Amino acid sequence: MNEKSVAVVTEAGNGIGKDFARILADNHYEVVLAATKESYDKLSALSHDYYKLTEVDFTSEESLVTLKKNIYESYGKLDLLVNNAEIVNGFGHKIDQLNLKEVREVYEVNFFAVIRMIQLFNPLLKLSEDPRIINITSSLGDISKMKDDTFCYSGYSLTAYSTAKAALNMFTHLQCREYKPSKIRIYSFDPVNMKNCTYNSVNICEGVKEDFVDLISKQQ
Fold first, then answer.
1. Is residue 91 scored above 90 in pLDDT?
2. Does residue 131 contact residue 80 with C-beta atoms inside 8 Å?
């Protein structure tokens, strides 16, 4: 059994998987960053001595089963699962412009892959003394905010992305109830700072970083 805390972070497009990995490494986690091909290729070109990079296909059960097998053989447990992988398409598309194939592609990674990951890694999380799951969400999936005309993105048409994140929020809520009697804790986390109501860059600022550290802190 690996004595160091072990984390798996998923990455498929938002580019902040490596930022989560850095925060986790700085907080004494051994990190495996599981990335889809495009993200994997980009991350391979960067220095990554603070995480172990592995390529996965989140739409493939076989690929995820292999990832689980490798994690178990290497570490014997999983302490933290960060479901960060996401993609986006169909910006501004109205109903007559929606491509159902593209909508399904977003749901496969942003929603169904989260369910697959939790189902597969649940047995490894149970082997941890303090297991946690963090599902990365977005304000664009917050129905209350999207109904508020003063919210800067209330007029955005990102049907696939926003509805997938809304579905993820409900799923996380239901999992909180399911896991309540167990030692597994699950959280929803939006890593992008909405100050000044803009996504100037996809990064994790200090205030948001502190909130994330609170979630992974063993003293919590």
1. no
2. yes
Task: Establish if 31 belongs to a structural domain.
Answer: yes
CA distance 132 to 83: 11
pLDDT for 110 beyond 80:
yes
Beta carbons of 175 and 118 less than 8 angstroms apart: yes
Whether the predicted pLDDT of 196 surpasses 50: no
Per the domain annotation, does 133 fall within a domain?
yes
Range of the domain at 37: 5-87+107-138+165-196+205-216
> Interhelix angle for 37-44 vs 17-26, to 10°?
60
Q: Which amino acid is at 33?
A: L
- Higher-confidence residue of 218 and 25: namely 25
3-state secondary structure of 46: coil
Q: CATH number of the domain that 112 lies in?
A: 3.40.50.720
| Percent of all residues in the chain with a pLDDT value above 70, rounded to a whole number | 92
State how far the Cα of 158 lies from the Cα of 149, in Å rounded to an integer: 16
| Rounded distance between C-alpha atoms, residue 61 and residue 68, angstroms | 11
**How many structural domains comprise the chain?**
1
Tally helices (H) and strands (E) across the chain: 8, 6
Give tens-digit pLDDT for 173-191. Answer: 999 999 999 999 999 999 8
Judge whether 94 lies within some domain.
no
Could you tell me if residue 97 is inside a domain?
A: no
Tokens, residue 51: 């995480």
Q: What does the buried/exposed string (b/e) look like for 176-191 if buried means 16 or more CB atoms within 10 Å of the residue's CB? A: eeebeeeebbbbbbbb
